[in-house]
Amino acid sequence: MNRLQQPVSALAGVGAQTARRFEKLGIRAIQDLLFHLPVRYEDRTRLTPIGSLEAGMTAMIAGKVEFADILPRGRKKLVVRIADDTGFISLIFFHYSANQFHAFTPGALVSCFGEARHGYAGLEMTHPDYQIIADAENFALDTRLTPVYPLTEGLTQTAIRKAAKQALALCTHDNRLLIDWLPERLLQQLRFPALYKALQTLHTPGEPAACAALQNGSHPALKRLAFEELLTHYLSLRSAKNLNQSCRAPALAGDPIATEHFIRRLPFPLTGAQRRVIAEIADDCRKTQPMMRLVQGDVGSGKTVVAAYAALLAVSSGYQAAVMAPTELLAEQHYRNFSNWFSHFEAKAVLLTGQMKGKTRNAVLDALKNGSAPIAIGTHALFQDGVEFDRLGLCVIDEQHRFGVHQRLALREKGRQSGIRPHQLVMTATPIPRTLAMLQYSDLDISIIDELPPGRKPIVTSVIPSERRSEVISRINGWVAQKKQAYWVCTLIEESEALQCEAAEKTAELLAAALSDVRIALIHGRMKSAEKDAIMQAFKQHRIDLLVATTVIEVGVDVPNAGLMIIENPERLGLSQLHQLRGRVGRGDSDSFCLLMYQSPLSDMARQRLGILRDSNDGFVIAEKDLQLRGPGEVLGTRQTGAVHFKIADLSRDADLLDNIQEIGERLFREAPDAIQPLCDRWLGASTVYAEV
Ligand code: ADP
Ligand code: MG
User: What is the model's pTM?
Assistant: First the structure.
C-alpha cells in the first residue's frame, strides 16, 4: 500500500479519537488530507499599525501592554490594553487563567491576530490568537499565509494543520507517492501547475500576494484541482458508457400485434414527438447491447405513455419491466395509468412501495421472482435487497433528476444478472444546459419530446402579494362554483418534512373555515400510502374541490379538471421546481391559472425570477433564463438532488472550466487511458464500484 493510502492514524499526533473526527470530514486516508482544502487564509505575514485598524478588519498587530485588568462588572472578563506608536486597542478575554493574566505585565510586547470591533473604549479584539514576545530582537512574522480548514466538532485548526503538513511532507520526500495523472502537455496548454505544486500552494501558500486569488478561487492551483475533479466526473460517466457497450442485453423486438393494439386502444393519438422517441427506443431495445437512453420532455409532454410502450416491448418479448418513480404518489398514479392502458392485455402491473409490508409485500416479491408479474411499478423500494426479478429486461426511471447520478448508475448494476443487463430508460422534465448535461448525462443517449399534446392552452400565471389572500380565497369560491377543481400548495423553506406538513395542516384548517361550501382535503408526505391514494382517487373523481398539498405533488400528478393552482411563497423555490409544480395544471382543454402568492417585500432578484415564470410556459426557456440570472451553481442548487456533488469544484465559480472538459476527456481516453481508473479512485472513491464488471 502506498503510504498516502494509509489511514490518517499513521501520522504523528493523530490518535484514534482524532482519526474519528477526521472521518466525519470524509478524511480516512492520508491522501484525503491533501484534498481537504482550506476555506480561507489568514495573512499574518505583516503588521498593521494599530492606528489604521478599522472595525471589521482582521489583522496582525503588535504592541506593548499598557495595563491588564479584570473587570467584574457584567460578565467577568480580562481586559488588556496594548499600544504601538500609532494607537491603542483592548484585548478582551472571557476565559483566561491566572497565569495568562499575570503574563500581561505592563511593558510586555504582544503580537496578536484577530478581528477588530467597536468596543466600550475604542476598538477591541475578543479572544485573539496572541503571543507574548520575550525576545523582540528575534521576533519574526510568518512568511506564508496561514490556512484555515473546514473543521468538525473537537478538531482544532492546529491539529489539522499539523496533519496536512505531514501529508504534504511525505510527498515532498518521495515524489512517486502522489501521481499527477494529467499529462504534462495538457497542463502546459491550460497553464495549470503540476499536482504536487498545486497542493503545496493551496496548503502552504508562499507569496501573500496570492491571497486574494486564493480566496476568490481564481488561483491556477485551485482551478487545476477543480478541473481535475470535473474532468473525472465526466470520465466516470463516459467509462460507464464504454463499459455498457461491452455488456449484453436481451433483444426486445416486441410483438408488433401487441404494440399496434396498444397504440390503437389509447384514448388519444400519439404526438409526432412521442412517435419519434418511441421509434428511437424501439431501435435501441432491438439490440443486444443495453439501451441507456434519457428522454427529456417538458412537464405534460406525455412521457408516461412512452414508458408504457417501452414496457410493452419488454413484456411482449417475454421479459419483465420495472418502472421506478421518486414518490409513492407518482408510483401509484403510474400504476393506475398502466393498469388502464393494459386493461385489455393479459400483462398486469404490480405496485411495490416502501410502505407495503407483510403478506401483500411477499405476494408481490414472489410474483416478481417467479416471473408471473411482468411489470413492476414502484419507488426505489423496487431495487432494494430482497427484490428479485425472474427475467428483467428493462428498467425505467422516471423523474431521474430526483435521483442522484451515482444512484442511477448503481441501479443499473443492480439489475444485472449473469452478465446480462436490462435496457435502461430514464426520463426527466428538468432541462439543464448543455455544458452541465455533460456532467450529468454523458453516459446516456438523449431523446427529446419537444411537442405538447394538442389543445393545451398556456397557463396564465400571475404574481401577487400575500396581502391579497382574501381576494384569492374568494376566487376559489367562484372557481369551484363552475365545477372546477384547484390546488393550494404550501411551501416552507425548512427541509423538514414535519414542518411542511404542519404548515399545510394549518392552511387546510383556515381555508376550510373560510370556504364552507368547498370540499377540501389535505395531502402530504407523512400520510400513509393508502390514505394518500384514497385522497388522490377522490380528487380525481371530483369528490374533492380543493386539494391542499405540500410539494409532494411536485412531480407527475395528473388531474385534468384541476385548472387553478395557488402556490404560497414561490420565492423560496427554484424555478424548475415551480415550473414542475405549475405543470399540474393546464392538463385539460380549458383555461388554467397559476397564482404565485409571495410574501412581501420581494427582493429584486426574486421579482425578476418570478417574472420569468409568469412570462414563459417553456421549461427550456425558464431554465436557460434562470441560469443567466443566477449562474450554474445556484440553478443546480441543493434542492435538486440529482445534481452531482463536488469536493472542490464549484459550478458557479468554475463555470469557465466546463467548456473544455468534454474535448479533453475524449483526448484522455485516447492518449492516457491508464489515468482514468486512478482518477476515478482519487475523486469518486467508493462510489465508483459500479465501474467494476
Ligand atoms: P409528463 O410525464 O411528460 O409530464 P404525462 O405522461 O403525465 O406527462 O402526460 C400528461 C397528460 O397528457 C396525461 O393526462 C396523459 O394521459 C396526456 N397525454 C399524453 N400523451 C398525449 C397525447 N398524445 N395526446 C393527448 N394527451 C396526451
Ligand atoms: Mg411524468
Answer: 0.74
Nearest residue (by CA) to ligand 1, atom 17, is 302
Tell me which residue has cell 463536488: 646
% of the chain at pLDDT higher than 70: 92
Cβ atoms of 300 and 273 within 8 Å: the answer is: no
Q: Convert the pLDDT of each residue in 519-540 to its tens digit.
A: 999 998 888 878 888 898 899 8
Q: Are residues 199 and 120 in the same domain?
A: no
pLDDT at res. 419: 72
Residue 616 CB: number of other CB atoms within 10 A? 17
Centroid of ligand 2 to alpha carbon of 325 (angstroms): 9
How would residue 407 be classed by pLDDT, with cut points 50, 70 and 90?
low
| Residue 548 sits in the same domain as residue 586 | yes
pLDDT score at 642: 46
Is 248 domain-assigned?
no
Report the alpha-carbon distance of residue 570 to residue 110 in Å, rounded. 54
Final residue belonging to a domain, choices 197, 216, 235: 216
CA 560 from centroid of its chain's CA atoms: 31
Note whether residue 684 is domain-resident. no
What residue type is 331 in one-letter code?
A
Q: Is 334 in the pocket of ligand 1 (CB under 6 A)?
A: no
How far does residue 370's CA lie from ligand 2's centre (Å)?
29
Q: Do both 537 and 567 map to the same domain? A: yes
Query: Which residue from 83, 534, 619 is spatially nearest to 298, judged by alpha carbons?
Result: 619
Residues 542 and 425 reside in one and the same domain: no
494: region left, alpha or beta (phi > 0 left; psi from -120 to 50 alpha): beta
In this structure, the dihedral spanned by the alpha carbons of residues 639, 640, 644 and 648, taken in order and rounded to 10 degrees, is: -30
- Please give the residue range of the domain that contains residue 188: 3-41+147-216
630 inside domain:
no
Question: What count of Cα atoms within 13 Å lies in the side-chain half-sphere of residue 99?
Answer: 1
- Kindly state if the Cβ of 274 falls inside 6 Å of ligand 1: yes
Q: How far apart are CA 409 and CA 238, in angstroms?
A: 12
Q: Report the separation in Å between the CA atom of 557 and the middle of ligand 2, taken as the mean of its atom positions.
A: 8
- Looking at residue 621, its amino acid is V
What DSSP letter does each residue of 210-225 carry, written as one string?
A: GHHHHHHT-SHHHHHH
From the list 284, 618, 286, the residue with the least C-alpha distance to 429 is 618
Residue 661 lies in a domain: no
* Spatial separation of the C-alpha atoms in residues 214 and 42, rounded to whole Å: 11
Same domain, 437 and 374: yes
Last residue of a domain, one of 113, 141, 169: 141
| Contact of 181 with 678, CB cutoff 8 Å | yes
The total number of structural domains in the chain stands at 4
Do residues 498 and 605 both lie within one domain?
yes
Asked if 521 and 494 count as a contact pair (C-beta separation under 8 A), the reply is no
433 shares its domain with 492:
no
Beta strands in 72-228 (DSSP E): 77-83, 88-93, 109-115, 117-119, 122-126, 129-133, 146-148
Q: Which H/E stretch holds residue 40?
A: strand 40-42
Work out which ligand 1 atom sits closest to the CA atom of 305: 6
Residues 27, 71 within the same domain: no
